[in-house]
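User: Sequence in, structure out. Go.
Assistant: Echoing your sequence, followed by the structure tokens.
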Amino acid sequence: MTAKDPLFTPHYAGPLQLKNRFAVAPMTRVSATEEGCATELMAKYYERFSTGGFGLLITEGLYTDQKYAQGNLLQPGMSDETQAESWKTIVEQTHRAGAKIAAQLMHAGPLVQGNRFVNGSIGPSAVQPRGEQMTSYYGKGKFPIPKEASEADIADAIEGFARAAHLATHIAGFDAVEIHGANGYLLDQFFTDYGNSRSDRWGGDVSSRVQLILETVKAVKKTIKLGAALGVRISQGKVNDFFHKWSEGEQGAKVVFEALANLGVDYIHVTEFEAWQPAFSNTEKSLATLARQYAPGVTVITNGSLHDLNRSAQLLEEGADVIAYGRGALANPDLPIRAKNGEDLRDFDPSLLGPIANIKESELA
């Protein structure tokens, strides 16, 4: 691999100017203060990626309000000015290294494993989430059955995203915000057929179930700082239902990607367990390829087991613009530099995320 490889070429995602196509995927590390503020340990963790050559860093999910949004104990937030201020050091050091940074904004919805503000959770319907809570994030046992979100709850959730976007870009100085519409959290749960049995405007067919994502995008566009980029993360699989597929297949992809493109988002971040695999059984196209097809002109970021750089190159050829690395970045915080120098990549060590998935001093050595 050389500096002329497509992975090393600059890219524009709306106003977001990236020096290359390497991004760090959002990864939950439960290392904030109890009050949801970023720490010095977190600053060291993120700095390794920016000085390691990545063009874009996407933060772990930041909870957006002081009601139902928090999903994990020691999760960072973007729900007040104190939390926003705590990210300034991380944003500034990212910029000094020539990289950009996006704040991923997240409402946990039914997938709550720890919330210091309220008891219980909300979801589109009172349907118990599949699977078990994750012990690596201080979870234990089954997920609780959520309360069906009222119109007031939905309005609060949307307002939380909008306020968090303002804080992230106006106070903390983030270059972009990424709305977390994936992985089984609140916005994705509304989009999921088996999790949403509502008969009002938020339920029904796929074009209705995607409305909460779209209304959130509209609200964020009104509060985000001029010149900051807006992205949305989309997935089929969930942290509690890894291999879920949209029942509408490619038609579902068409609805969500076209709608996001029509709203003028700057990028769509799709994630699958193996990003290069066909999205559905009746097509050879990956989810990234479908995003490119139905959202022409919108930057496509893709994530999912792409630490094999040949796979990364393949996805760029098939429609992706930027590759986001999770486990590959944890094992190789200097992955772009190693790739440019032709050095072998280190294998991922699962102990980094166990027994608790917090940031460990040993990984910063």
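User: And one key feature?
Assistant: The chain has one domain: 6-364.
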